[in-house]
Amino acid sequence: MNKIICLGFVLLFSRTGFSQIPWSQWSEPQQLCSSAANDRHPVFARAVAIDYNILLWERGDSSGSQIVMKRFDDPSLEIAVTEYQQNVFAKNPTAQYEGFLFPLGAVLIVWQSDESGNFDLYSAIYQDGELKAYRQITADPGDDINPDIYNNYLAWEREGKVFSAAFSFSDTSWSAEECVDSMDCHHPVRNYLFDRVIYEKVINGQSEIYMNTWSAGQGWGAPQCIFSGGVNLNPVFGTDYGEGLLWQHRGPHGWDIMSYSFWQQDTGSFVFSDSNETFPQGLGIPQSTDDLAEPSYLAFESDRSGDPEVYTHDSDHDYQNAYNLSQNSGPDQRPVFSAVSDMEVQVYQLRSWLAWESCRNNHWEIWGSFIETGIEDIDAGDPANITTAPVLFQNYPNPFNPITTISYELSGYSHVELAIYDLLGRKVRNLNDRFQPAGSYSIQFDAHNLPSGVYIYHLNVPGRQIARKMLLLR
């Protein structure tokens, strides 16, 4: 069976069908937020091994807009990141939650606003229930738009150029901006490979997918073309999707979805129908302790039913079909996946959300659906005997070369296994396999004989299994 594994390799090239019946594994769509104004442009904070998700969006109308957020551990509470001002438009939020260099619980939020007369970029930190450290990032007379952040690295566009800057939590300041590419570039994106920016670049009237790489002592290098031919728009990195880069491509069947793997430098195509498939999103969810291959889900917008609807596709278990998830008489568009959280539901369950814009009675709202996945092959014991779950911290430093420290806490005497896996699910190192009393522990991991790449470290105790990703960069 053709499928995608967590490396983001795209091996699916077959034409698949559509169905009007929602896939049963997704919950029934529900309203996530609504107000008298229009709610648009949902985006989840990017995250590294989170307990719960954070959603941000624009709220406003033709007279102005603001940025609003909500935490899924308290979904009834909405938090205004910016205050509403007449004739001021705050738009396009992007956020990072607990990145490699972030304090626990910290969220770095970036958005564009024209409060100074033209669009500039602004940022704030949300931590311990408080919004603080508001900063203006840019002040150029040109419009700074379409920000995208991963960890503390930011990319954006200004008048056809792409720029980059980095945030420091030590003094809550932004570095000086650096030009990534100055020739007709748009919609840059970043992911955990902090030295790369991906973007659209117009060459001879065609929009192509380009990449530029930063190196110490040299800065940004010469732009490289990843994919050319036709029109290519809206690049995006998948959520927990390895290095899976997705974008929409204008082909003989209309708009189709393309994917690129940085590991194999391979390009694949998803041709679902003769209708248009646009604004792709990717998601990977780990399934078990021993098998770390991540089933991959796609979400996208399609006009097959006559107006935009949100479709989902499971490339592992139902690769013949894509399902209309939104099923609304009005437009539903711009889907976005959350990260996988493990504390929104009961122990042994992982949850991820899919949110989108939904127009109902000429009014825009944010709707969504979630998928829950059980963690299999775990000796669960009796959940009633679990009082406090163990804690697995993000390794430090991360990225690392070649030594990093992994720390965890135990709430009681327990058997503990701490193991390292590669992205193919192969165990490459067992760091601990013994009984230990309650307390805090740290173990060094030396990867001097391993190749660069993403590794997953697993903490296993009876009744609980936790996994996090780390990046070895040489």
Structure characterization notes:
- By secondary structure, this protein is an all-beta fold.
- The chain folds into two domains: 17-374, Neuraminidase; 383-472, Immunoglobulin-like (Sandwich), CATH 2.60.40.1930.
- It has no helices and 39 strands.
- The strands form nine sheets. A five-stranded mixed sheet has the order 1-29-28-27-26, with no helix packed on it.
- The two termini are 34 Å apart.
- Residues 1-16, 20-24, 287-295 and 375-387 have low confidence and may be disordered.
Summed up:
The protein is mainly beta.
Alpha-carbon distance between the two ends:
34 Å
Number of helices: 0
Give the CATH class of the largest domain: Mainly Beta
User: Helix share of residues?
Assistant: under 10%
Give the beta-strand count. 39
**Shape, per Cα inertia axes:** globular
- For the biggest β-sheet, the strand order reads 1-29-28-27-26
Report the CATH superfamily of the largest domain: TolB, C-terminal domain
Largest sheet: 5 strands, mixed
What is the overall pLDDT average?
A: 84
Strand content: over 45%
The CATH topology name of the largest domain reads Neuraminidase
**So, CATH architecture of the largest domain?**
6 Propeller
